[in-house]
Amino acid sequence: MSLAAVPSLFSMSALPLAATLDGAFVVSLNAYLYLSAVLFAIGFFGVLLRKNTLVIYMCLELMLVACTVALVAFSRYNGVMDGNVFVFFILTVAAAEVAVGLAIIVALFRRRQTVQVEELNALKN
What we know:
Helix content: 55-70%
Largest sheet: 2 strands, antiparallel
Strand content: 5-15%
Shape: elongated
CATH topology: Helix Hairpins
Structural class: mainly alpha
Number of domains: 1
Strand order of the largest sheet: 1-2
Order of helices and strands: EEHHH
Number of helices: 3
Radius of gyration: 20 Å
Distance between the termini: 67 Å
């Protein structure tokens, strides 16, 4: 078997993103994983490149949502409910995280009158 006969991981012809099954439009697992990877990459680079704490926090939440999309996709692909139950707990914890995180950001803004990361570099005052 030659190396040219092995389909590439990024070959769009080898891995269809969508198909029709008895007239219904069916999205493949690959499409969900690509979507999850793109969302995670956007969130990751947003955390690295942004200077506003609110935007950084939103990017962190976007990364969490990307992980939950992948969990639901794998759960649906395997035909089990384990991933869906795990996502339910993740979203419950994320709701509490949002409340605490936004409270910390509001407290920082009241104390320092800014939410820019460069100006929040000292623990004093």
